[in-house]
Give the backbone structure.
Amino acid sequence: MNKMSLWYRMPASEWNEVLPLGNGNLREAELVTSLGGICKLRVPHAAKLVVYGQDGAPVGTASADDGCAEFHAQKNMRYRIAT
């Protein structure tokens, strides 16, 4: 294991035991967290933290908006299948 590795004895079982990951923007209420074990990993996300579009297109441009629509359509499809 190298110096940049994180290793834990057991997976987190509660939300307050998880390791927060994100872009450092503390104004966002939702941070990316991982909760699970070796066989499963659940990564909830805040859509505002995900970068959309092509070639760094700013939000509000056609390519960025197309990426947002596609992302949310796929996310909604998974919710419909699960219910």
Residues 62-82 form the longest helix (21 residues). The helical segments are 62-82.
